[in-house]
Design brief:
Elements (H helix, E strand, L loop, with lengths): L1 H28 L2 E12 L11 E5 L3 E10 L2 E15 L5 E2 L4 E15 L9 E7 L25 E2 L10 E10 L14 E9 L3 E12 L43 E2 L14 E9 L7 E4 L4 E5 L8 E9 L3 E8 L12 E10 L5 E9 L21 E5 L5 E5 L8 E12 L6 E8 L1
Parallel strand pairs: 12-21, 19-20
Antiparallel strand pairs: 1-5, 1-11, 2-3, 3-4, 4-6, 6-9, 7-8, 7-10, 10-11, 13-16, 14-15, 15-23, 16-22, 17-21, 17-23, 18-19, 18-22
Length: 439
């Protein structure tokens, strides 16, 4: 009888061994993740677009504004139809774990300031999903198609789908996307790479491409966001991301009275060196006698519009070396800013230096920011030239801020950074004054 019991136990162990092995193999296979490393904007060249219906795209991080028009054949400078589509979407996570889902939201705000053609409209679409890394064929202009709703239907937005007429307004879609496994979309030129594409089409294709690399090991507990601020934490159509305007209060401490802490997710300054103040910086609009910018040796900076009722700018700041962060105390700000155009701004500028190129520029709005801004000349007078694109992030209104520089630093940051505070087209006699402590 004892021998019979042993045989039965041995048989049971042998039976469950394959299952245990399978669990172990699955656990081992899950020890890896996709890590974000690069964001790229692509759009079809002019030659491939419909010449009779020009569309100009202005990308800004996780938003694209499309200016669409139908010119008057009798006078090309006049329009028979004009539409503005402001597309905004969720930043994909910085870390993607195969098999997991992440929420994805698409929003488009449609404006139609000119319409002499009745029911005419621009039909455009937006979707997102994964594909081959760094494509060089026409596929590079296509967005993904992986958005899904709980019922299995597509989570994309297609304005004018089925020849339906749409009115100006805000259109949204809530969905999710499943992360593909290691080995998906493999190409020999870029092993261990994959791209996530968020974009759309008019008479041509365009997308923002987020490139990821495979990393072996246990995924970080905080996935972060490849787009900087927000990710799936909140709707992209709010004032912090909508790219129209944010005319909020700028009185320090009115939100909670607590300090603003921005956590570290990116690169870092060179280790083992002391923080250095390299030089003070001031710039102002040369066409205004009233705009001003002040910088003192004790790192108090002030920018003001003066009596100019609408236009102009002032930026004051400092170039630092080997700082990990900047603590900012707001000493003075207006109750309300004026918002006059797409370049209206109140906040901070971080300009990271790199060994090659013009570095990376991030503008941090603290009361007013417009993602459709186009002016890149605000630091030119200090010899700090703008890179090809500028990242725009709204960090809210607070009494003080602790900015982790690594959060937005490019991979090739050389440890030097310019911090500046400034106003642009922000309202008569408005000022912004801060004290900073580099660390």
């Amino acid at each position: 009888m004892f021998a019979s019991i042993v045989r039965n136990l041995l048989f049971l162990f042998i039976s469950i061994l394959p299952a245990l092995t399978g669990v172990a193999q699955a656990a081992e296979a899950s020890k890896g993740y996709w890590k974000f490393y690069e964001r790229t904007w692509v759009e079809s060249p002019e030659a491939k677009r419909h010449p009779g219906y020009p569309v100009k795209l202005v990308p800004n991080g996780d938003q694209v504004t499309a200016f669409c028009r139908v010119p008057d054949p009798a006078n090309q400078s006049r329009s028979l139809l004009e539409e503005i589509h402001k597309w905004t979407w969720t930043s994909p996570p910085n870390v993607l774990v195969p098999g997991q889902k992440f929420p994805f939201r698409i929003e488009v705000e449609v404006q139609r300031p000119v319409n002499k053609l009745g029911k005419a409209q621009f039909n455009g679409g937006f979707d997102a999903g994964f594909g081959f890394p760094k494509p060089v064929t026409s596929d590079m202009y296509r967005s993904g198609g992986d958005t899904r709703k709980p019922d299995g239907s597509r989570g994309n937005i297609h304005l004018g789908e089925g020849s339906r007429h749409y009115e100006p307004g805000i259109y949204t879609s809530e969905s999710f996307i499943v992360v593909p496994p290691k080995g998906a979309y493999t190409v020999k030129e870029h092993p261990g790479r994959i791209s996530f594409r968020a974009g759309g089409s008019y008479s041509f294709g365009w997308n923002t491409r987020y490139e990821y690399a495979w990393v072996e090991g246990t995924p970080p507990t905080e996935p972060g966001s490849a787009g900087g601020e927000g990710g799936a934490k909140g709707p992209p159509g709010g004032h912090s991301h909508d790219g129209i305007q944010d005319n909020g209060s700028a009185v320090p401490g009115t939100k909670s009275g607590s300090d603003r802490k921005i956590t570290e997710t990116g690169g870092d300054a060179r280790p083992g060196r002391t923080v250095s103040v390299l030089k003070l910086i001031t710039t102002k609009w040369p066409h205004s006698p009233t705009n001003y910018a002040k910088a003192t040796q004790d790192l108090i900076f002030e920018a003001g519009m003066g009596s100019n009722p609408r236009w102009g700018y002032g930026f004051a700041g400092v170039e630092l070396a080997n700082a990990r962060g900047v603590i900012v105390e707001v000493l003075g700000a207006p109750v309300k800013y004026g918002h006059y155009d797409a370049n209206s701004f109140a906040g901070f500028v971080l300009h990271y230096a790199t060994e090659v190129g013009n570095g990376k520029r991030v503008m941090l709005g603290i009361g007013m920011m417009d993602r459709a801004r186009w002016d890149v000349s605000i630091l030119d007078q200090a010899g700090i030239w703008a890179p090809q694109s500028t990242e725009l992030v709204d960090i809210g209104t607070h009494a003080s801020y602790d900015l982790e520089l690594s959060r937005w630093a490019p991979p090739n940051w050389n440890g030097k950074v310019v911090f500046a505070v400034g106003l642009q087209n922000a309202g008569e006699n408005n000022i912004l004054r801060v004290r900073i402590t580099p660390r």
